[in-house]
Amino acid sequence: MSHKPVHIVGAGLAGSEAAWQLVQAGIPVIIHEMRPVHMTEAHQTGNCAELVCSNSFRSDDVFYNAVGLLHEEMRRAHSLILKCGDAHQVPAGGALAVDRDGFSAAVTAALRNHPLVSFDECIVEGLPPVEWGPTIIATGPLTAPALAAAIQEITGESSLAFFDAIAPIVHTESINMEKAWFQSRYDKVGPGGTGKDYINCAMDKEQYVAFIEALRTGEKTEFKEWEKKTPYFEGCLPIEVMAERGVDTLRYGPMKPVGLTSPHLSGRPYAVMQLRQDNALGTLYNMVGFQTKLKYADQIRIFRMIPGLESAEFARLGGIHRNTFLNSPKLLGASLQLKAQPHIRFAGQITGCEGYVESAAVGLMAGRFIAAEIMGHVPVTPPVTTAMGALLNHITTGADAETFQPMNVNFGLFPPIENVPPKIGGRDRKKLYAERALKDFAEWLNPSAAAA
User: Fold this and answer.
1) Is 373 in the same domain as 409?
2) What strand order describes the sheet that includes 56-59?
3) Residue 56 and which of 1, 95, 299, 356 are 20 to 30 A apart at CA?
4) How far apart are CA 210 and CA 203, in angstroms?
């Protein structure tokens, strides 16, 4: 059968994954992407699924971490994002991190070389018309102003917004390894890793206190008047904002010294800044958790206070951009359709999920929901006991519309397991959640096999 193409607005992680799921079902797609003709403040290329912040997809631990479980569910659903991520992984302890350029190039090639995919490099100025038929808006945190205004007009809601900050990237050869050292926290070996996947820079108490003071007093980016009331997402706070919350905040966050032993020191470090490999060649490392809104000159001055980075050369300095998302529990239906215009579905960060993998997972679901409808079926959402289902439930019905905020996938979104003794907690309970999720996800993927 020949099908009318599905329109997808945005070729980020969510849009790319949605397109892939649709073409795997034999349904053609048209991807509308304004880059590279019209660039955003954060992107640097016109490639699909460009990573503008971290290069990490976070933990790959399927049984003890909810995002690792989400990875596994996506792999089982033949995710393009996870396939390309696995193919371009770089060492990162227990995390799945990728060579950002190789990863993005692979996603782009897979889509541009597919016979059912076509691209329209333009800005979609308004809400997609009904004549387009099934459409996915996956424009992410940097939705073009005209489209954002059109969405706001049809929904009657003001989109919520917060700031996302970008961490700096350092040229590896400029790091002083007479002070720094290679080690993963607790020597943990992850996908493609050796247990020595991070570069660590230690501080003593005097150095740390001076560093915190420099962060607090450094010159920051000034916001426009309309941006000043925009809150930060708690999971991606700028380093200087964390420093302002207390002198020890960073020591219990991205600079915690636990699980690390410096060969250059006799005792445990007071604080540690970690760098994670950013490309396959290992020539670039990004400063983990060091997203910032400091002005460029002060970034260079302050970050060179870190032992081992005295002569650091930066391939990219930190930055900040405004992120927008819908009040999804109020505006979207159970399968991500816009209640006011059901031919439109939303996917990715604009729905209020947070994180690369979560965004791609929502795109995966949106693509599958539309494919089901085109094939004459009623879309069936994943069970809430799965990572995908728990995330979808939070976005569409589980969260309070009055207080809705972006959320990473976590086991707190999963329904409790019945009849589990209270003494079973922590890691053991997480494993039970994961085992239940994988069983239920397999049945959702292949209901006929489960029935048999």
Assistant:
1) yes
2) 56-59, 95-98, 89-90
3) 299
4) 10
131 and 170 co-located in one domain:
no
pTM reported for the whole predicted model: 0.81
What is the C-alpha separation between 401 and 410, in angstroms, rounded? 19
| Neighbouring residues of 217: CB distance < 8 A, sequence distance ≥ 6 | none
Place of tokens 């997972």: 361
Note the pLDDT tens digit of each residue in 93-149.
899 999 999 999 999 999 999 999 999 998 888 889 999 999 999 998 778 778 888
Residue-number span of the structural domain to which 209 is assigned: 165-322
> Residue 194 above 90 pLDDT?
no
User: Is residue 296 a part of any domain in this protein?
Assistant: yes
| Straight-line distance from the first to the last Cα atom of the chain, in angstroms, rounded to the nearest whole number | 28
Structural tokens at position 376: 């004459």
291 lies in the same domain as 401: no
Counting the structural domains of the chain, the total is: 2
Asked if residue 117 belongs to a domain, the reply is yes
> 322, 350, 370 — which closes off a domain?
322
What's the rounded Cα separation, in Å, for the pair 394 and 384? 9
Per-residue tokens: 443: 């049945």
**Nearest-10 Cα torsion for 193, 361, 234, 164:** 90
Closest by CA to 292, choosing from 102, 107, 77, 53, is 53
**Which among 289, 322, 355 is the end of a domain?**
322
State the Cα–Cα distance between residues 320 and 130, nearest whole angstrom: 35
Asked if the structure places residue 1 within a domain, the reply is no
> 296 and 210: one domain?
yes
Does 119 share its domain with 134? Answer: yes
Please give the backbone phi and psi of residue 18, each rounded to the nearest 5 degrees, phi first: -60, -45
**92 contacts 56 by C-beta, under 8 angstroms:** yes
Residue at 208 is within a domain: yes
Any idea which residue has 């799965």 for tokens?
Answer: 386
DSSP H helices, 128-274, are: 145-155, 205-217, 239-244
3-state secondary structure of 255: coil
Angle at 365 between CA 436 and CA 153, to 5 degrees: 130
Q: Which parts of 187-292 fold into alpha helices (H)?
A: 205-217, 239-244
